[in-house]
Every structure is written in C-alpha cells, then in structure tokens.
C-alpha cells in the first residue's frame, strides 16, 4: 500500500487542477452567454433575458467561490492528513471477534477525535465544493432551458 500512498498527493493535486480547468472553461462559457445577451440588438428588455442574466451572474459567483476552494484544496498535502498510528487488531488471536470489533470501533473513535483542524477544514471544503457544484449544475440546466426556449 505504500506504493499507492506515494502518489496520492500528486493524484489529488492533478485532480484539483483538472477541476479548476473545467470550472474555468465553464466560467468562460458563461461570460460568452452573458455577452451575447447584453449585445443582442434589442438589448435586455424581456423578463426571460433578465432572468438569464441573473442566473448566469449567480453561476459566475458560485464558480469564483469554487475556484477559491480548488486553490485552497490544491495547496494542501493530503499525505500528511489523518495519518495517526493505529493498533493492529487483526493479529491478536486471544481476543474474541466481538472484542476485536469493539476495539476497532474504539480506535476509529479515537482517530476521529484526534483529527487535526486541517483535516476537518478540508472535509468542510469538500462538502462546500460538492454543494456548490450541485447548485451550479441546476442553474446551468435552467439557463440552457431558457436559452433553447429563446432560440426556438
């Protein structure tokens, strides 16, 4: 398993970088949509165009927040997170199975209590990134629906 752990931080950094690139490309697409709405010959005069502008602007704000989260996550070395020594309970032949399970739960509880603030912050940023991404997907679906409706 140590071979897998050697490249864990490199993998996470690449993954975060790719997420940032995808978010940047979506941001540029939204800028293009915003420009096409504002540069239309009639200007922004209908309720649908105003709704599109508001939704695109909200998406762009969420994307900037996501970019900040990705930069924060990319700056962390995940190999150093959550590395607490644990007792090997599988080698003890004198303990009963229920005692082994109980000890495993106790060890998991101890590890969870000892997690550093940085571990918890990274968990929070992962949760925030997931929620923001879900919100972005919903907004983008609504925007695409409005745009296709206007083009028809």
Automatic annotation (TrEMBL):
- Source organism, top-level taxon: Eukaryota
Query: InterPro entries, from UniProt?
Result: Ninjurin
**In this entry, which stretches build a coiled coil?**
none
Q: Give the region (Disordered) as residue ranges.
A: 80-104
Q: Where are the transmembrane segments?
A: 50-72, 128-147
Q: Keyword Oxidoreductase, does the record have it?
A: no
Give the signal sequence positions. Answer: none
Report membrane topology.
Multi-pass membrane protein
Which is one Gene Ontology cellular component term of this protein? membrane
Q: Where in the cell is it found?
A: Membrane
Biological process per Gene Ontology, one example term? cell adhesion
Q: Which key words tag this protein in UniProt?
A: Cell adhesion, Membrane, Transmembrane, Transmembrane helix
Q: Which family does it belong to?
A: Belongs to the ninjurin family.
Annotated PANTHER family: NINJURIN C, ISOFORM D, NINJURIN-RELATED
Its protein name is Uncharacterized protein LOC118425945
Q: Which organism is it from?
A: Branchiostoma floridae (Florida lancelet)
């Amino acid at each position: 398993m140590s071979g897998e752990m050697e490249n864990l931080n490199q993998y996470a950094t690449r993954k975060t970088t790719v997420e940032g690139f995808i978010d940047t490309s979506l941001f540029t697409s939204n800028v293009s949509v915003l420009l096409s709405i504002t540069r239309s010959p009639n200007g922004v005069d209908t309720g649908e165009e105003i709704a599109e502008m508001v939704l695109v602007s909200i998406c762009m704000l969420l994307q900037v927040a996501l970019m900040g989260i990705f930069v924060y996550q990319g700056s962390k070395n995940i190999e150093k997170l959550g590395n607490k020594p644990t007792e090997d309970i599988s080698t003890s032949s004198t303990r009963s199975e229920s005692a082994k399970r109980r000890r495993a739960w106790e060890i998991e509880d101890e590890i969870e209590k000892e997690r550093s603030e940085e571990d918890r912050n990274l968990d929070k940023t992962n949760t925030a990134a997931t929620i923001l991404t879900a919100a972005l997907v919903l907004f983008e679906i609504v925007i695409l629906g409005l745009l296709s409706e206007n083009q028809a």
